[in-house]
Amino acid sequence: MKIKRKHLLISLYLLFTMSATASQVEVLHWWTSGGELDALSELQEKVEETGNTWLDVAIAGGGGNSALTVLRSRAVSGNPPTAALIKGPNIQEWAKLGFLTSLDDIAKREKWDEILPEFIKPIMQYQGHYVAVPVNIHRINWLWLNQAIFNQAKITIPTDLNELIAALPQLEAAGYLPIAHTSEPWADAILFESISLSVLGAEQYKQAFVDLNPQVLSSPAMINAFAKLRAMSLYIDKNAKNRTWEQSTKLLINDQAAIQIMGDWVAGKLLQEKQSLNTKIRCIQFPGSEGAFSYNVDSFAFFKLKSVSSEVKQAQKTLASIILTPELQRDFNARKGSLPIINTMDKSDFNACTLQAYADYQQAKLDNTLVPTFAQAMATTTYVQSAITRVISSFIYDKSISNETAVVQLTNAIKAAQ
Ligand code: BGC
Question: How far apart are CA 359 and CA 382, in angstroms?
């Protein structure tokens, strides 16, 4: 991708103004898989080019539960990192507790108000002040499938949820693992998120998981969503509980499993594995959810630091500045499988799945079908999100729970968590 002259000048400015006060930045995150590490190394390199050093605090575990637990204990004991990967309303929760620092001076200097998409700005702010910086937009409602397996089993690509469910026994009969699932609560939630978006549609999805409307939560459509989840859950194998999302992707690459339901960090993994995207392993919109775009914005929240040294504070600002530079946006997102935040980027180097995500994202904005992911903590508070996730996981692994009971549990759990 080409870099505009203006962008180059901003980067040179950053390099010169910030290298004078070198220090260390400590960054807490859960990016430990192949593509994630490749993407993060782009940020680390750009920080180190300014003369600062990078202290990596990587806590494994897709979805970030373990990382956020470590973050909580560090922050309450007065030892927060420089910045941490925190998303959605959780940013507000941290800011409300007084842990986050204002980034308004950088935001003003670098015109974040102009650069950031409208719907992302309020997520990054607390009481009108910027406290976090977004790095990308991931899409959740994807289905990854091995085209070679579908060809071999003579199954056409499913165009709706019923066709998808009907394909599962056929894939199994052809000798393949139908779904490469990861039995972890956050991945269970992603499975149900795509199903519910398909069954409810974008509008009712928002009413259920953003507005938490009890009528929609307990509606026949929601009962139907659980029925579809039950049908799919019958094809989750026992080994799923020992499998990371990355190992699931490997099963697709190795022609062992037919599909994976997961966000487009899978594209980052495929690229790292030197797979050409959308050829053997294809990305299709989760059947029945076409047109809707469930977004997940990775962002770094910045902490008030114990140290009063100006070097430390300057290093923190340098990190915040770099994240929205065109170079970082280009290099990071090319490896992460996500869309850049900056809309003016050259699209010619996007891989096939990111190109499709980009087109769908633009259309969803126009159609008002852009929805925040609840599974990945963009739609509600962390308390409500955990309550929803618990109901989903217990339903998947306890086959005695009926669809109707699950819906009652969902409504009650959400009510209690609000
Ligand atoms: C993050 C992604 C990450 C995925 C798997 C999600 O919570 O938003 O950036 O790749 O977890 O680790």
Answer: 30
